[in-house]
Specification:
The complex is a heterodimer of chains A (322) and B (273). In chain A, 71% of the residues lie in helices and 1% in strands. Chain A is mainly alpha-helical. The longest helix of chain B is centred in the first third of the chain and has 32 residues. Classes of the chains: A mainly alpha (322), B mainly alpha (273).
């Protein structure tokens, strides 16, 4: 599950609820917290924090260490080798290929997600017969599992599959889609966009419906036609949401695995070997947990980089996005 | 009027074309699942031309799908229940109680959200292996019993419930846990519904973790079973598509039943599974 509620430092402190002013003012000598509240909080937090602590927080710290070892996943001893795994990454042509593939894939997914999501949202943003039907249809891929989606695409793109059969009917000899590295990467990109289309459209639709109507009426009175309103009002006003969709798409692409595993398995010749696939192969197929964890940290750095940009930019985009 | 009608027609035209692009893989899956094996290689029709429903029976029997299905149901129920209970308790603490390091803990949880699964999955796998939970329901469920997203979603909702309601109950002698169970929980049904649907779809469709922690058919989930079915029955497209469709039905049914809550949830949180 990927969550990208933009996290902003200012929003984290919680000025709501149970810190009534009478307590803080009443007496500074009394303990700041009520015993009953602290005990209840401990009781309530315990189960969730135990699970998250053991299976998420501790692993994050632990991963930092494992990436500095040559651990194979079974030995009791994790031999410390410093930054050797990272040094190995720099010299590994497979890593550079994987990084390149991931970046091309991420950019492709970004561009197409924005274009398709915005187009569909614009078309849906006004009373229209069958709105619910369209929304339902566009959302279908998003709730389908990655495995099922990738299986269907894989067989539609088979040389004997549906796509080439249709092409043959109009006299085109279709290529072997998943055996060419660029065509396979293109197919993977399209599959990802197809799967997230409904999600992106709903995001854009929400943003569209929150736009101030007055500006549009004013522009119309001033004689701006539909193209002009779209070009000079709608798209600029939607910039914060576009930014959000882009960040979303980037983060999802950096973390891609399921679709690739089933559609191409990373092939042909590493043509679709995104970082997740590369990590899986090194760690779980070749038993190099230390190296695999180092690869995983590269995805973390990529995600952090994107998030940092989002943070910086959200200073200006905040007012209109909220 | 005429202009408006032309515009609406244009919109429908593009939307229908888009919908076609979206729906064709589903139609093809359905059509193929009903064909004979020979037809799957020759027939290009997107509408069903033959109706071999027995393919579903054969596909179902060709692999232990009943077991896969059962495993997925058990895992999904466990994870959804875990999220609804554990996330809600933690969310209440963050929304309504004052305790030391509250903000620090919350910030740490938020920061953990940004960390890709790839980073935590190797150590988490090692921990589950140490616990002897590989190839067990415990390994599938326990590590995912609580999640940060659910805590944030519910915390936000709880915080929006007027404090006065709770205060009144407290004055009438209701305990803290009593107000949580009798006031907060009943008033938060929409938030619980949204979280429940997200958690179900996440659990049902999840792939990488079940792939790692299961080795035998006794605990494999439907998604894992399906991906291994591809390897074994890769040439029997009709069976493959019948199996795939069967595995997809629960997600689609949940979606159709709870479409509104799901879309509302995405609009307000920006989440996707």
């Amino acid at each position: 599950m990927t969550v990208t509620r933009p996290t902003r430092p200012g929003r984290v402190s919680v000025p709501d609820g149970t810190s009534p002013s009478h307590r803080s003012r009443a007496s500074r000598r009394q303990p700041r917290y009520e015993r009953e509240q602290v005990l209840t909080a401990a009781l309530f937090l315990c189960p969730a924090l135990a699970v998250i602590g053991v299976f998420v927080l501790y692993p994050i710290v632990s991963a930092g260490y494992i990436s500095l070892t040559s651990w194979n996943g079974f030995d009791q001893v994790k031999e410390f080798i410093g930054l050797e795994n990272y040094a190995r990454l720099v010299e590994d042509p497979e890593f550079w290929n994987s990084l390149l593939v991931t970046c091309i894939y991420a950019v492709g997914v970004c561009v197409l997600s924005v274009a398709s999501g915005l187009t569909i949202a614009l078309l849906l943003d006004a009373p229209l017969r069958g709105l619910g039907f369209y929304r339902g249809v566009y959302f279908l891929p998003a709730v389908t599992s990655s495995v099922a989606a990738a299986i269907v695409w894989k067989y539609m793109l088979d040389p004997a599959g549906f796509v080439n059969a249709i092409l043959a009917q109009v006299g085109i000899a279709g290529p072997n889609w998943l055996q060419d590295r660029w065509l396979a990467l293109g197919a993977l990109t399209l599959l990802t966009v197809w799967k997230n289309l409904g999600f992106n459209a709903v995001l854009y639709l929400t943003a569209l419906q929150a736009l101030p109507q007055g500006v549009f009426e004013a522009a119309q009175l001033d004689g701006a036609n539909m193209t002009q309103r779209l070009r000079f009002l709608t798209i600029p006003l939607l910039a914060p949401m576009t930014f959000f969709v882009v960040v979303q798409a980037l983060i999802t692409s950096f973390q891609a695995f399921d679709l690739v595993y089933v559609l191409t398995g990373g092939g042909p010749q590493g043509g679709t070997e995104v970082l997740g696939m590369f990590m899986y192969r090194e760690a779980f197929r070749l038993g190099d947990f230390g190296y695999g964890t180092a690869i995983a940290f590269i995805t973390l750095f990529l995600v952090l980089g994107v998030t940092l940009v989002q943070w910086r930019a959200s200073g200006s985009g905040r007012s209109s996005l909220r | 009027m005429n202009r408006n009608r032309r515009l609406a027609f244009g919109r429908h035209l593009v939307l229908v074309m888009g919908a076609g692009f979206v729906i064709v893989p589903f139609l093809w899956m359905f059509t193929t699942s009903l064909q004979t094996r020979a037809e799957t290689y020759t027939n290009t029709s997107i509408l069903p031309t033959s109706w071999h429903w027995e393919n579903y029976v054969h596909a179902w029997q060709a692999a232990p799908f009943t077991q896969y299905y059962l495993n997925s149901v058990i895992m999904a129920v466990g994870i959804v229940a875990g999220h609804l209970v554990l996330d809600a308790l933690a969310a209440y603490a963050f929304a309504r109680l004052e305790f030391p390091w509250k903000n620090a803990i919350f910030v740490i949880l938020l920061a953990a959200l940004m960390v890709p699964t790839f980073v935590t999955i190797i150590p988490a796998y090692a921990i589950v292996a140490d616990l002897g939970w590989i190839d067990s329901y415990a390994g599938l469920i326990v590590p995912r019993l609580a999640d940060v997203f659910g805590i944030i979603l519910l915390r936000q909702y709880f915080a929006s419930i007027p404090l006065e309601l709770e205060d009144a109950a407290r004055i009438d002698g209701c305990s803290r846990i009593g107000t949580f169970l009798r006031i907060i929980v009943p008033l938060s049904t929409p938030a619980f519904a949204t979280l429940g649907i997200f958690s179900f779809l996440f659990a049902w469709n999840d792939f990488l973790w079940p792939l790692l922690v299961t080795n035998t058919d006794e605990v494999r989930t439907i998604q894992i079973g399906l991906s291994s079915f591809v390897g074994r029955y890769g040439t029997s497209w009709n069976y493959l598509m019948a199996g795939t469709l069967t595995a997809t039905i629960p997600s689609i049914v949940v979606f159709l039943l709870f479409q509104r809550a799901l879309v509302r949830g995405i609009a307000s949180t920006g989440l996707k599974d």
